[in-house]
Write a structure and sequence with these properties.
The complex is a heterodimer. By secondary structure, chain A is mostly helical. Chain A contains 15 helices and two strands. A two-stranded antiparallel sheet of chain A has the order 1-2. Chain A is globular. The termini of chain A are close together. Chain B is an alpha/beta fold. In chain B, helix 2 packs across helix 12, helix 8 packs across helix 9 and helix 9 packs parallel to helix 10. The longest helix of chain B is centred in the N-terminal third of the chain and has 25 residues. Chain B starts with a helix and ends with a strand. Classes of the chains: A mainly alpha, B alpha/beta. The interface between A and B is medium-sized, with 31 and 31 residues.
């Protein structure tokens, strides 16, 4: 302790810089290790588990989209299943009717869903909280019927069967692992883009509007523009997830996109931590595994088990898994570091 | 004492080993089959919008439990895994992959719903897993050339329509036919089945067709247009809501054609009552299963056996549901196919046996209706019996008739 007191200003600065660099290195190493694990993982698992994890990542991207809107910008959406469907059908129609290769459908799906989100965000500007939730609910309940209405394009209630993508033969891996890696790349890009957006100027504007719209406006933030942008970005992510879902499942039908899907996204978002990026991945795991887990425990009342699990999560970790554990972990790390510094 | 026990145990072991050898010599097993067990997979909508159909899966489970209580099939018990897909196709894909790859089921049986089966159709055929007796009626499921691992069970829409055509040719040879159909694959199956049944007379006899979209508010215009064509026979291929509208409108405008109403929309509760019972008198439809609420069956031993089964397996709440009679018949068909396989329980053989059904009678099917399949025909039920509405209920009439679909 005596040493640190005797440090002069320059030394202190140098040390802070060193700590910051150390954190950056650790972060970088941790991220690299996580990515390495994610890349190697499918080669140690059965095809079915690989498929499950692919689904987890798709849901994670969708939840990430919702987190941008609900967590960072404070707008509740019960309609993201509808945007997920829009993305899925954009990809499916392009593949089915126009023979577009699967990987080339992501950008159009993103564009369509961004456009839809912005259009939807405009009237949504007039609504807040529960009222906005109702407006977006309209999207979720209308979507399956709209899909049946435009049956020349969507195949109506029969849906569209898609040709399953083939992995490049030179890689020598099967389809499930190839799709896993494909989705993993999209997920990593999505996380990177979301982090850039949210940790910068735009993200701060989103949060300011969420916390105090009037103060945000007084600071010169164009609230209407940013709220619309938040909507569009959010639906863009969810739409891309929808396109991936269509590609991986190889089939779309209106029944695939019921209201419950929208609710699942919101549940996944809340369980993971709404204003976090990592929470989206936890949310993806929750959406994929908890219903199956509930079914394994009880054939008679799986949804009661599902509800109970959800309650348990929210009771133990009210800010979501990442929202609760994240700060706790950061705090512990800081304590550990200052203890170590003191020991020196 | 101990020595004696050991000798007995030793003898038993020797006996078992000999018996075991015999079984091994004869038995050829695919995935999910052992000397003592056959694992079967199924998805049903136990929750969600189509959960009323979930009774099918419950009846299967109860029926297999009963078979197991009686010693199983050739000494093997059925391990029936059924999971809730909530009628959501992505969920079906996930659950079916889980059952095939993790639980190692021998085959998929009675998976319910057109979209759900569409979603797993390619996967199962690619991996050569039998998709036996899908619970959906579209004609496309009967396609052994392209999908040799998928077999249907219900008489297809096309077959039903073909049967109406046969009746018309025989009894109303000079008919001028109008058709109202839903503008999708289901509706077109009926239209095509009728055309196939009428053969080269189709072009002359069908004087008008009108279609509707499920999003249309009413079909009044279509009905009026069809009347204007001068037709004296009407075939309606419509789901309950539009079927009820049609029955009412035809009556209200004073049109009196011989009206054939598809079995998809002939429920007394959801079609005939809302339309007005008196307005439906004389309408003709078709059936293949004994309706449990029809008093004429309730004194037959077949019905009593079914009723006893339902009551003793906690299903007494569903004894008026025709779906429970259908689920029962499905399960009996599978048991029959597995019996036919003997000890050769490979996936290839189960498809071969399923494609070799010959005049199989089932207790809850209408008398005279039997199941027949061949290597080129994967739709077991091709017969139905016509029935006429008398203002309160459907009355069967005439002989059991058959059709060949589209």
């Amino acid at each position: 302790m005596a040493e640190s007191v005797s440090l002069d200003g320059t030394a202190k600065l140098a040390m802070e810089r060193e700590t910051r660099m150390a954190i950056a290195v650790w972060r970088w190493a941790g991220t690299a290790a996580l990515i390495a694990v994610a890349v190697v993982l499918p080669f140690t698992l059965s095809n079915y588990h690989v498929f499950e994890l692919t689904q987890v990542m798709i849901y994670a991207i969708a939840v990430l989209g919702l987190n941008i809107l609900t967590g960072y910008n404070g707008q509740i959406s019960l309609g993201h299943g509808g945007f997920f469907a829009a993305g899925a059908y954009t990809a499916a129609i392009l593949m089915h009717r126009y023979g577009v290769p699967y990987w080339a459908t992501l950008a159009p799906a993103a564009l369509v869903c961004f456009g839809l989100g912005v259009l939807f965000g405009l009237p949504a500007l007039r609504f807040e909280g529960p009222y906005l939730a109702l407006v977006t609910l309209a999207m979720a309940v209308a979507m399956p019927q709209l899909l049946k209405y435009f049956d020349n394009w969507t195949g109506g209630k029969q849906g569209l069967v898609l040709v399953k993508p083939m992995p490049p033969p030179e890689l020598g891996i099967d389809r499930d692992r190839w799709l896993y890696l494909f989705v993993l790349v999209v997920l990593l890009v999505a996380i990177r883009v979301a982090a850039n957006l949210l940790n910068g100027r735009t993200g701060r504007a989103f949060v300011a509007i969420r916390d105090h719209p009037i103060a945000a406006a007084a600071m010169g933030i164009n609230t209407a523009r940013y709220k619309t942008l938040a909507f569009g970005t959010s639906t863009l992510f969810t739409g891309v997830a929808g396109a991936l879902a269509a590609i991986v499942i190889g089939f779309v039908a209106p029944e695939s996109f019921t209201l419950f899907l929208s609710l699942s996204f919101l549940i996944g978002s809340a369980v993971g931590g709404i204003a976090t990026i990592g929470g989206a991945i936890v949310g993806g795991f929750f959406i994929e595994f908890v219903p199956n887990f509930a079914n394994d425990i009880s054939d008679a009342a799986p949804w009661a088990i599902y509800g109970l699990t959800m309650l348990l999560f929210m009771y133990v970790m009210p800010r979501g898994v990442v929202g609760t554990l994240g700060p706790w972990l950061a705090h512990a790390m800081q304590q550990f570091r200052s203890a170590r510094r003191a020991a020196k | 004492m101990k020595a004696k026990q050991m000798i007995v145990a030793g003898l038993c072991m020797a006996g078992l080993m000999l018996a075991g050898n015999a079984v091994y010599a004869a038995g050829q097993y695919g995935p999910g089959v052992t000397d003592t067990e056959i694992t079967i997979g199924n998805t049903n909508p136990y929750s969600g919008p189509a959960s009323s159909y979930g009774i099918n899966g419950k009846v299967h489970a109860a029926y297999f439990a009963m078979i197991n209580e009686k010693g199983g099939i050739n000494g093997r018990k059925i391990n029936y895994i059924t999971r809730d897909d909530s009628y959501s196709p992505p969920k079906t894909v996930e659950l079916v992959r889980q059952m095939v790859e993790q639980d190692k089921v021998f085959l998929l049986f009675g998976t319910l719903g057109t979209p759900s089966n569409m979603a797993i159709h390619g996967y199962l055929n690619e991996n050569k897993v039998p998709q036996l007796f899908v619970a959906t009626g579209a004609d496309q499921w009967n396609d052994p050339k392209h999908f040799p691992w998928t077999m249907m069970w219900l008489p297809s829409y096309g077959i039903e329509s073909h049967i109406y055509a046969n009746y018309i040719l025989k009894n109303l040879p000079n008919a001028k036919i109008a058709v109202l159909y839903q503008n999708d694959d289901y509706g077109k199956d009926y239209l095509n089945g009728l055309r196939a049944g009428l053969g080269d007379k189709a072009a002359k006899m069908i004087v008008a067709t009108q279609s509707y979209e499920t999003t249309d508010p009413t079909v009044d215009q279509q009905v009026v247009a069809l009347q204007g064509s001068g037709a004296d026979v009407l075939l309606t291929a419509a789901i309950p809501k539009f079927a009820a509208q049609t029955v009412r409108k035809v009556y209200d405008i004073g049109w009196k054609p011989t009206h054939f109403l598809n079995s998809v929309g002939n429920s007394v509760g959801t079609v005939m009552k809302p339309a007005g019972l008196e307005k439906g008198v004389g309408i003709i439809s078709a059936a293949h299963v004994k309706d449990p609420t029809d008093p004429q069956w309730q004194n037959t031993p077949e019905y009593k056996e079914w009723l006893a089964f339902m009551n003793s397996h906690g299903l007494s709440g569903s004894i008026t549901d025709v779906q429970a009679a259908i689920g029962y018949s499905y399960a009996q068909t599978l048991v029959e196919v597995l019996k036919m396989c003997g000890d050769n329980l490979t996936r290839e053989n189960v498809m071969k046996q399923a494609a070799s059904l010959h005049d199989l009678k089932l207790p809850m099917l209408l008398p005279g209706i039997t199941l027949n399949t061949s290597a080129n025909d994967f739709d077991p039920i091709k017969q139905m019996q016509l029935q006429k509405f008398d203002g309160t209920t459907w009355q069967l009439f005439g002989e059991v008739m058959s059709g060949s679909g589209t």
